[in-house]
Amino acid sequence: MIILLALRNLIRNRRSSLLLILLMAFISLVFFLGSSLISQSVRGLKSTYVDNLTGDLVIQKESRISMNLFGANTPVIDDFFTIPVLPAYEEVKQVLKETLPDARFAGMVSGKAVLDAAGVRTAVPLMGVDAQSYFTLFPGLKLEKGEWLKPEEQGILITQGRAKSIETKTGHPVQIGQLVKLTYAGRTSFKIREVPIRGIVSYTNPGPFMEEVVISDAQTVRALSSVLAEAAEDVDVEEEALELLDSDADDLFGSDTGFFDDVEASANEQDNLIDDLRNELATQENSEAPWIGGDWNFIIIRLPEDASALMARNRLNSRLKPLGVQAVGWQTAAGNSALLVLLVQNLFYIGIILVGIAGVVTIINIILISVFRRTREIGTLRAIGASDSYIMGMLGLENLSLSLAGGLAGILCGRFFMNYINALEWPIPHPFIAALMGSPVLTMTFLPELALRAVLLAVLIGFLSAIFPAVKAIRINPMEAVRQG
User: Fold this and answer.
1) How many CA atoms within 13 Å lie on the side-chain side of 34?
2) Does the pLDDT at position 50 exceed 60?
């Protein structure tokens, strides 16, 4: 009986009913489309960075300053910030192997330099990588020309975009094996390294700055950034050299020791000594030794497909805290671009809350007007014995029916809008927007869970909006209502 009466009232009040349906449809449509875009942007950006640059997790030294793979996440601090070296590297690797045995990982040392290629000078971020394991972590990194870096081999990999830029400015294509210079000017040092280009790579749907990244062997970045490393090979010190540690300075350099008399030589012999010294230094500079210890800034981790990054991070951090390091998610490691998307997401949901509040106020006013127009009807029902719960149930059912109809109408309109956008196949010209959407072509994905949330939001708003008018309705005096009618 109450359902039939509610349907009759909806038909009789067609204007207010249609207005409520349109308002609910608008709210559900805005929430559905906005949530879909935000959800798709988060998933697209995550795929972009996880598959190309950051991995699922990154281990770094604990710091009061939030930092990404190339510096601080705060722009003002970034100019004065130096990425700390990862301490207890071997211990951290052991903890990682024990805690996440199925994970893959690789070390990375970060730096900055000026790249001089055929006279074209540009500032570039450097990634010194463990060539043996780094390239297996990222399916989005593709080799376009040349070869991958090999362990204990000096060289760099540049992106296809950078190679095209150099070709445009010089008129000559970049050649594999071409020598380039990397220059770093610090506060107390100035260093230059000349290395060959080993290959040209590309990223799948690159992020806003990935085209600028130069991948290098780790030792070149260490040398430029003055990162001290610990050699894996033991150094044998002769017994005579150790005896010098117990000697007095006067005994070593006094005039009566005969030290200077023993090193007197002719001019030709001195020239030979200088030449021998130069050859020895050149040999040491070109020698490559395996390095271990505190010579990495980060450890990049890739988890199995079905693994939870949040759970893995919590497990790692519980064991890594005594070592002074921590695991962070891809959002922090990606830097400001990922954090900006999360900020936009939060601002959107705040906007939805404001729209919902405005919708509730508007719906309450519409229902109140409808209730005042039906004063005689409600009074008559109360006069013939209708209970308060009956009156409230009737008004609530009417409003919930309108809310459900409006929510479904909004989802239906949103689905048609998505199909129309996907059929247009609009290319996205800006790389940052393309990275956000996870595709160079504008596409929108229908997500049933978001559609359900939008409908539930419309029903919730309708329920909350019906409470106050229903309370006003049950307070109507039956005799006064009949007298007014």
Assistant:
1) 19
2) yes
